[in-house]
Specification:
The complex is a heterodimer of chains A (258) and B (304).
Chain A: H1 8-24, H2 27-49, E1 54-55, E2 58-59, H3 60-91, H4 95-98, H5 104-130, H6 141-165, H7 169-185, H8 198-204, H9 208-221, H10 228-252
Antiparallel strand pairs in A: 1-2
Helix pairs in contact in A: 1-5, 2-3, 2-5, 3-5, 3-6, 3-7, 3-9, 5-6, 6-9, 6-10, 9-10
Chain B: E1 6-15, E2 18-28, E3 33-37, H1 44-51, E4 59-64, E5 67-68, H2 73-78, E6 80-83, H3 95-105, H4 112-124, H5 140-152, E7 158-162, H6 170-185, E8 189-193, H7 197-203, E9 206-211, E10 214-220, H8 221-228, E11 231-237, E12 248-249, E13 255-260, H9 266-275, E14 280-286, H10 290-300
Parallel strand pairs in B: 3-8, 3-9, 6-7, 7-8
Antiparallel strand pairs in B: 1-2, 1-4, 4-5, 9-10, 11-13, 11-14, 12-13
Helix pairs in contact in B: 3-5, 8-10
Classes of the chains: A mainly alpha (258), B alpha/beta (304).
Bound molecules: adenosine-5'-triphosphate and magnesium ion (MG).
Chain lengths: 258, 304
């Protein structure tokens, strides 16, 4: 009866493909809209602040661009996993991926990779749209890629946790408003934390997103508040902890297989 | 000993204060057409979810074709196709995309064989003309057909259908049963829940009745019918004479009922009624049916 060819990794590839297709099919909402938002931030903030400020010797507009790109990567990576999971849970079509022989690791990797891909796509869109407003250096392109991937993966994983935990849209919104927004806004997207009062500086040092944005910006200008190596370790550690928590939840079936 | 298609051993599952499954034991052999019946809330869907790995029992073991659904979940899930009770779908995709993606989840590569099989399923469920329609645009019955199709993309030897005919028109019911019967003849094990007891009676070789998380009856359909239900003779007469011969008066004026196991009990009865001078206007013979079995079983086990 089972005369059709079977391959174990196909399940993972299909789930990845399906997750990619899901955001691609509604790209006006998942890609174009966040690019436009970032562009508006840039136009408004740079207009208000550019004449006054230089940070690390970089004109404010140029300083802002990588911050906005990274913020878009992070927010969209989070949005992708969390909204995909909650939608599937609420509409009930999550059974389509819970019934097949897909392992916890495959499930996790497919969702996270697709979310990172969406983060990348939006990030690239934001870069393309804003690049004309200031001159960037690309001092260390490798770091740009490393932090974009790592930051995206961290937020995608956090999005998975939120999507697994939340049962309703307003719970997800609460997660987003009380955790994700503060984490991204108190991370030096719009400023260098060196310019903050020391209390807020020490708070920011507990925020992994700050390290991701700082490291990402290092890739463009070769200067940063923190050494990129230090930021890399913080990022890897954060990802490892979040991934372990998510995989544990998936293995236990927490809230997905009651 | 042959490996059971589904083996359920001492499965318990509680949701808050509700004991949804209360020690279920059940073995279904390969090739069976099996019916799982029970009133709303009996635990049918919970049992199916546990079999499909969608829900984790608090205690007990479940195997599909000898594979434990927890320890050996990959092998177990490959052998199983589940049609869920809820009408769920993914609004992002067309019918064909839905089926191709589902096949991919089971590790089937996008080969010609897969295409041919998907085309065959679409054809058998009368979905060919809707293949490229978006899921959102389909009617409820059409969505139900796609759910059935999705459960079959990987040709599972064991197929479980949770109320596949709820809200479905007569034509699809017939198409669907024809198709499921064919799958059964080809060797697939079929497990079915339905509230249409006539369907279950016609299709299922064996039936389990579930009530408040327990199996309260489990036997071949034929045995259930003969144990719990009997043939009945109904007469419409003038006069009250049938009462003398052990017939019971029905609610509708003039109708009398007599239950019997063997047909040779009828003739002497009719003879006596005739000689008593009673005029018979109408006569009906009722076959035993699952509905009366079901009602009896549920009443008998009311305090179980
Ligand atoms: N996720 C859940 N949370 C809480 N209670 C649940 C959950 N799932 C099922 N139940 C309860 O468990 C019991 C059995 O439900 P189940 O869905 O298995 O019944 P069923 O036999 O399929 O009924 P129906 O014929 O209506 O489909 C019910 O009392 C139901 O309310
Ligand atoms: Mg049910």
């Amino acid at each position: 009866m089972n005369d059709l060819p079977m391959r174990p990794s196909r399940g993972f590839l299909t789930l990845l493909y399906k997750e990619l297709l899901r955001f691609w099919k509604v790209s006006a909402q998942t890609i174009a809209a966040p690019v436009l938002t970032a562009l508006l931030y840039l136009v408004i903030f740079s207009h208000v602040l550019s004449t006054h400020t230089k940070i690390h010797g970089v004109p404010y507009t140029a300083f802002l661009i990588p911050g906005l790109v990274m913020m878009s990567v992070l927010q969209n990576a989070f949005a992708n996993t969390s909204s995909s999971l909650i939608q599937s849970k609420i509409t009930g079509n999550l059974v389509f991926v819970l019934l097949p022989p897909i392992s916890h690791n495959e499930f996790f990797s497919a969702y996270v990779l697709a979310a990172v891909a969406r983060g990348f796509t939006v990030g690239a869109g934001v870069l393309l749209a804003t690049i004309w407003f200031g001159s960037l250096n690309y001092a260390a392109p490798l770091w740009i890629g490393v932090f974009a991937i790592l930051g995206g993966a961290i937020m995608a994983t956090l999005g998975m946790l939120a999507g697994i935990w939340a049962e309703k849209y307003d719970q997800l919104a609460a997660f987003q408003n009380f955790l994700i927004m503060p984490l991204t806004f108190l991370s030096g997207v719009f400023y260098s934390i060196a310019s903050l009062p020391s209390f807020w500086q020490s708070i920011s040092r507990w925020n992994p997103v700050f390290y991701m944005i700082d490291g990402f910006r290092y890739g463009f200008f070769g200067v940063s508040d923190i050494s990129p190596w230090h930021s890399l370790w913080v990022g890897l550690l954060s990802f490892t902890i979040l991934a372990a928590l998510t995989l544990h939840s998936l293995r236990r079936g927490y809230k997905l297989r009651d | 000993m042959i490996t059971a298609a589904i083996r359920v051993e001492q499965v318990f599952k509680r949701f808050g204060t509700v004991q949804a499954l209360n020690g279920v034991d059940l073995t279904i052999q390969p090739g069976e057409f099996f019916g799982l019946l029970g009133p709303n809330g009996a635990g049918k869907t919970t049992l199916i979810s546990s079999i499909g790995g969608l829900s984790r029992p608090d205690a007990g073991r479940i195997e599909i074709m000898g594979c434990d659904v927890q320890a050996n979940y990959r092998a177990a899930r490959r052998q199983l196709g589940v049609v869920p009770q809820e009408l769920v779908f993914d609004p992002f995709f067309s019918v064909r995309e839905t089926l191709e993606i589902q096949a991919g989840y089971y590790g089937i590569d996008p080969s010609r064989a897969r295409q041919a099989w998907i085309d065959e399923i679409l054809e058998s469920l009368d979905l060919t003309s809707k293949a490229d329609a978006n899921m959102r645009s389909l009617s409820g019955g059409m969505k139900r057909r796609v759910l059935v199709a999705q459960a079959l993309v990987h040709r599972p030897p064991v197929i479980v259908l949770d109320e596949p005919t709820a809200g479905v028109d007569v034509e699809l019911r017939q198409t669907l049963w024809q198709f499921v019967r064919r799958l059964n003849q080809e060797g697939h094990t079929i497990v079915l829940t339905t509230h249409y007891l006539e369907e279950a009676e016609n299709l299922c070789g064996r039936i389990a009745m579930l009530k408040a998380g327990r199996i309260v009856a489990l036997d071949t359909t034929r045995n259930l019918l003969s144990h719990f239900s009997s043939h009945s003779l109904r007469l419409h007469t003038q006069g009250d004479q049938p009462a003398q011969f052990g017939m019971t008066k029905e609610d509708v004026e003039g109708w009398w009922r007599f239950s019997f196991a063997q047909f040779d009990e009828i003739e002497p009865l009719l003879a006596r009624i005739r000689t008593a001078g009673c005029v018979i206007n109408e006569l009906e013979i009722g076959k035993p049916d699952l509905e009366s079995v079901f009602v009896r079983v549920m009443q008998d086990r009311a305090c179980a």
